[in-house]
Amino acid sequence: MLIRIENAYLGILRIVVLVVASVALVVAAIAFMMSIPPLARQFGLVSPPVPHGGTLGDYVEQKKATAPANPTASGDREDAAQPKRSTNPDVQAAAKQLQAYTKGAGEMTIPKWEVEVEQSGGNIPYELERAYYADVKGLTDQLTKSTGKRLSLAQVRELITWNNRHFVGDATAKAEEAAAQGRRALFTLYVASAAFVLFILVVFTFLFVKVERSLRVVRTVRLEDQNA
Asked: Which UniProt keywords apply (predicted)?
């Protein structure tokens, strides 16, 4: 009678072990796979998303919703007589496009525009400088292709400053999101580890029960053989 009850309990335990172990293994696998991409970005194995500034259309729409800027507020800026030339190809290309767009207004030259663009990135972290100047180049591409009312020299300078603020804001938001994803990935990895440990414990517990029962059956058979 007791052996039948024990066999029934072992049958139930076998089903429970299969269900719990399977669920734990699936949870561990899914959690581990979910944690890989954020952790890869966290440790620099995958390139993080590149921040971007605003677009020319965004700037124009924002200016329409606010008071117009004073067209001479920043147009008479004093510039260096012999500015140092930039070695960044994006800065050089952006300066040429700005010079062509403003048509030399305010005695601006390509070297002076190069200085202007480089100085606008003075608050950009070193690792994001290349992305920033490429973004400025993209903005000047939009500027030269635009067909609306031309911007004044002051407004062009304001556009560069405005784009810088948007780039910094987007970079900060992306950094915060990456940090949050890293924290979530670590938590997910802990969950995966705990689920895998649970899987191992359940399997080993069942194996211990099976081994103990097998040894008891062997011992019982030997005692019966001796009594016979």
From this structure: Membrane, Transmembrane, Transmembrane helix
